[in-house]
Specification:
The chain has helices at residues 3-16, 60-69, 85-92, 104-114, 119-128, 149-162, 168-179, 201-211, 220-231, 237-243, 285-291, 308-325, 348-357, 380-384, and strands at 21-24, 27-34, 75-78, 96-101, 247-251, 265-270, 326-336, 338-341, 344-347, 366-374, 397-404. By secondary structure, the protein is of the alpha/beta class. It has a domain at 119-231. The radius of gyration is 22 Å and the shape is globular.
């Protein structure tokens, strides 16, 4: 079915159906509207808030589905793992977790959360790092629009140290440093900038000019330590360490989860890219620069396309792979949103449902059980991106719950 035909099909069905149902060739599907989890901020374990990450969902979302559809010891997976929200929540709930992301940055963000260390270990390690060693700045990238020269020297020394030291303490320090690379308060290393996205250098220069500022000195060590204390305040470190051996992180394409065993996962909780709503390469360029991840390792591998047909094919092939790794009657809770496509608002949950009904795509692989539409109010960060509550942009959580046939 072409994207145009699919859209006509969806629009006709939506107009004919009741607000609580989506009509499909295989019968009506209940679509529930409610606040299934709290809209309040930072209500879960503090490790969840170690890093900001574009287009990530709240930890309350996987907690909701894990608590209802799995038991302790079950395996929970996420093929679009991002910063590791699903696998961390699985570990906190005594479930085995497996998380994948095509961007190697995801593993850098997620691994330290499921292998946490103590603040004493972090403090002791920071004292051993020489932040003031001489650096040949002529060989480094120009980041003067973001950092004071002394801050930048400290940052380069930390980066150089981390290329050779990779135990759990070092990796936790790295993750914490990644969270401080750019932001809008004195707690970040940079001059005033966006906290959630890495903006281009020219844009940062414009911000500095508009605000009449130059980057001031920001001590690296003290800011890492302060952020680490906040990240670790919820505790449960020993419990997470015990469950670390049951957690698995992979890096690769969601359409080929070759390191995931067949029929091994009880529940998938995930959120794929929404067409071309987010530029995952550009928006994390400072983080990948700090980690030494070449742009070519990411660019071209992340599927971010405005073409609905290509997006449907990508999701369809991912669903086929998820069908392989799920146990019999295993579940997928896939969170999507609504996007502007060719001038019209397109609910991606409806596209996803149609994939499961189409012979061309995933018919006979999944049975859609329900659709959950989370009512929510947005934070000041969302408002910075001109997202109005439940009106414009990708601003609803729409979760399609599917069962493996």
């Amino acid at each position: 079915m072409s994207s145009q035909a699919l859209l006509r099909n969806i629009n006709t069905e939506s107009a004919a159906s009741q607000p609580s149902e989506l009509i499909t060739p295989f019968g009506p599907i209940t679509r529930r509207f409610d606040e299934f989890w709290t809209a309040k901020q930072r209500q879960m374990h503090s490790l969840h808030y170690a890093n900001s990450y574009r287009a990530s969902f709240k930890p309350e979302l996987p907690e909701y589905f894990i608590s209802r559809f799995t038991s302790p010891g079950d395996r929970v997976g996420d093929p679009f793992g991002g910063r590791g929200t699903t696998i961390l929540q699985a570990a906190l709930m005594n479930r085995k977790g497996v998380s994948n992301d095509v961007n190697p940055l995801g593993e850098r963000l997620a691994a330290p959360k499921i292998n946490p260390v103590t603040i004493e270990e972090i403090s002791e390690r920071l004292e051993k790092i020489d932040f003031n060693a001489p650096v040949d700045m002529g060989r480094e990238d120009d980041m003067s629009m973001f950092y004071h020269p002394d801050t930048y020297r400290e940052l380069i020394n930390l980066r150089n140290y981390l290329t050779k030291h990779r135990d759990n303490v070092d990796r936790f320090i790295e993750m914490t440093a990644l969270s401080r690379l750019h932001g809008h308060s004195n707690g970040f290393f940079s001059a005033y900038s966006f906290p959630q996205i890495s903006i281009p250098k020219v844009n940062q220069a414009k911000i500095n000019k508009t605000r009449g500022i130059e980057p001031d000195y920001r001590d690296i060590k003290s800011r890492i330590l302060k952020k680490a204390k906040t990240t670790l305040k919820s505790g449960q470190i020993e419990e997470l360490k015990r469950w670390a051996k049951h957690q698995k992180l992979t890096t690769g394409d969601s359409r080929d989860l070759k390191e995931w065993e067949s029929e091994s996962v009880h529940l998938i909780v995930t959120s794929p890219p929404f067409l071309n709503q987010v530029d995952y390469v550009q928006d994390t360029w400072i983080e990948t620069w700090f980690c030494g991840i070449p742009r070519e390792e990411v660019e071209g591998k992340i599927v971010q396309t405005p073409d609905l047909n290509k997006w449907m094919e990508f999701i369809s092939r991912t669903l086929s792979e998820l069908h392989r790794v799920l146990v019999p009657s295993g579940l997928v809770a896939m969170e999507v949103g609504e996007v502007r496509h060719q001038g019209e608002l397109l609910n991606l949950d409806e596209v996803l449902v149609n994939l499961t009904c189409s012979k061309q795509y995933n018919q006979d692989q999944f049975r859609v059980k329900e659709i959950y539409v989370q009512s929510q109010q947005f934070t000041k960060l969302a408002n910075c991106f001109r997202v109005d509550n439940n009106k414009l942009g990708t601003n609803t959580n729409r979760i399609v719950l599917m069962e493996k046939i």
